[in-house]
Design brief:
This protein has about 300 residues and is α+β, with helices and mostly antiparallel strands. The chain is built from six helices and 18 strands. The strands form three sheets. Strands 8, 9, 10, 11, 12, 13, 14, 15, 16, 17 and 18 form an eleven-stranded antiparallel sheet that branches. A hairpin with a 4-residue loop joins strand 16 and strand 17. It is elongated. The N and C termini lie far apart (about 55 Å).
Length: about 300
């Protein structure tokens, strides 16, 4: 059977499209073609297998079955809501195009014309806004938590999709090599040296890709006074060091650098790639990139002129 990923799905109207693994031509999906399974709701990025039939106006999926990883199956047994690999919400530049097609497809569905659809596939785009407008499922028993997807969420979800080797710097000066498997509101499930574990986000100071490791370490310096204080992770967001996000956005716009000092003394100096409510992605002098978690910051300053 062909396989692919859910490219777009409107749960309220019950249809969407599948991006095939073996072809650039997308396949129309109607909810009536989905086999019943433990997985309650399709999400963008979810892997599926299916049969294909030729409709009057394009390819149509039949006998669609959701493909779950062992980790996803275990999480479902535990009553958790998962984020599938590749989930990225609406492509922000194409949202209006999809919504326009919603109206067109809904009219045909109302006429029970399920097999007769076609559409012009918009080009894939990079994330270009701080939030995609989609919601992020939480993992709190059977309860459902949600918030807007931020740049930080999209960054991690992209690394999940590409199985990117990364390093996570945790408190107590621990450098953890890992590949991220899943993400929830409170933590990351990772594979580190063949061992699966959950890292609470509050324990993460910063992260970077494996390919940037040498360059990140080359530029890493410490504030010895702060390092000697042996500051611990904060207990709540109320204890976080307050940074004016508008200052960071303006620094990014002006091309100015910022300097952040973390609670265990690490100092990073660089320009701002993006900012979210929870993280700041910085480009360092040698071109390496690091994502700093804002709860780990204890000092911040703007730097004018060249680095």
């Amino acid at each position: 059977m062909p396989t692919g990923r859910i490219k777009y799905y409107n749960p309220d109207k019950g249809f969407g499209f599948i991006a095939q693994d073996s072809s650039d031509e997308d396949v129309f999906l109607h909810s009536s073609a989905i086999k019943q399974a433990d997985y309650e709701e399709l999400r963008v990025g979810q892997r599926v297998k299916f049969n294909i039939v030729e409709g009057d106006k394009g390819l149509v999926a039949k006998n669609v079955e959701v493909l779950l990883t062992p980790t996803e199956r275990r999480w479902l047994r535990q009553g958790k809501t998962i984020i599938p690999r590749g989930y990225s919400g609406f492509p922000s530049q194409n949202q209006d195009q999809f919504l326009e097609r919603d109206t067109e497809f809904s009219k045909d569905i109302d006429r029970d014309n399920i097999d007769n659809y076609t559409y012009d596939s918009p080009d894939d785009s990079k994330d270009s806004s701080e939030s995609s407008g989609r919601t992020l499922p939480g993992s709190v028993g059977k309860e459902q938590s949600s918030r807007q997807l931020s740049f930080g969420d999209l960054y991690i979800l992209k690394q999940i999709n590409f199985e990117t080797p990364m390093f996570f710097s945790l408190f107590n000066n621990q450098q953890l090599p890992a590949i991220v498997l899943q993400m929830t509101l409170s933590g990351l499930t990772v594979n580190s040296n063949g061992k699966e574990m959950v890292i609470p986000k509050k324990d993460i100071k910063y992260c970077y890709k494996d390919v940037d490791a040498e360059n990140v370490h080359t530029l890493l310096v410490y504030n010895e006074e702060i390092k000697s204080q042996e500051l611990k992770p904060i207990d709540s967001t109320e204890d976080s060091y307050i940074i004016d996000s508008e200052l960071i956005r303006q620094a990014r716009k002006d091309g100015n650098s910022i300097e952040v000092t973390l609670r265990e003394g690490e100092i990073f100096l660089g320009t701002v790639d993006w900012i979210s409510p929870y993280e700041i992605k910085m480009v360092l002098k040698n071109g390496s990139k690091v994502v700093v978690f804002r709860h780990a910051i204890c000092a911040f300053s703007l730097v004018t002129g060249e680095m």
